[in-house]
UniProtKB/TrEMBL annotation:
Protein name: Nitroreductase
Family: Belongs to the nitroreductase family.
Pfam families: Nitroreductase (PF00881)
This protein's UniProt keywords: Oxidoreductase
Keyword Mitochondrion appears in the UniProt entry: no
One MF annotation (Gene Ontology) recorded for this entry: oxidoreductase activity
InterPro entries reported for this sequence: Nitroreductase
Highest taxon, organism lineage: Bacteria
Residue ranges constituting the Nitroreductase domain according to the UniProt record: 7-157
Length: 182
């Protein structure tokens, strides 16, 4: 039940206290990312932990002004930039092996969820940010060719306790045996 409540209680946190994250907690969060499942265990993920205030501010300027994650990106003690190598996931001997060419996004989603849940378990908050100028962010963080920056995860001590946003009921999205009757 403990893990279940961790899943249910995690919320996207977009405002943080002015308080550093202890190194053991940061290590535990990164370790949680390390143990995420991945395509063929090829572990396409690369993480950049951004602590530099100028870099965080520059990253926040790459989100649209209306993105609610903008202040979180500038104000969090750390922003984890989640990067991955597209050709390491869903490919065998250089050939795409299913109809999907972007399995690396799936792998990075699993890493991101592990990071978010571990942060919550340790009393920290986080928000996954996917809407920003990816090319400019890659240049800023000097992400090499062959690797793509997909999301940013500001992490810090929460300065807000949001109410849970609505979710679909199970009846609205779970299908037993076949998707439809016809
Ligand atoms: C792939 C992905 C991209 C997201 N991008 C943004 C974003 O750009 N800005 C933002 O404020 N929140 C972003 N979010 C957070 C969602 O808005 C949030 O998870 C959703 O509203 C549900 O709220 P909860 O996380 O508190 O349950 C993103 C979440 C995911 C999974």
């Amino acid at each position: 039940m403990q893990n279940k409540s961790n899943i249910l209680e995690r919320r996207s946190i977009r405002r943080f206290l002015d308080k550093e994250i202890e190194q053991e907690k940061l290590d535990a969060i990164l370790e949680a990312g390390r143990w995420a499942p991945s395509w063929g265990n090829l572990q396409c993920c690369e993480l950049v932990v951004v602590q530099d205030a100028e870099l965080k501010k520059s990253l926040s300027e790459l989100l649209s002004p209306k993105n609610p994650g903008t202040p979180a990106t500038a104000g969090a003690p750390i922003v984890v930039a989640v990067c991955g190598r597209p050709d390491k996931s869903g490919y065998y001997k250089g050939k795409q092996v299913t109809r999907y060419e972007h399995w690396f996004l799936y792998d990075l989603g699993l890493v991101s969820q592990n990071i978010s849940l571990m942060a919550h378990e340790l009393g920290l908050g986080s928000v996954i940010i996917g809407s920003f100028d990816h090319e400019k962010a890659e240049k800023l963080l000097r992400v090499p060719d062959g690797c793509e920056l997909v999301s940013l995860i500001p992490v810090g001590y929460p300065d807000m306790a949001p109410k849970p946003p609505k979710r679909k009921t199970l009846e609205e999205f779970v299908h037993y045996n076949t998707f439809s009757d016809e």
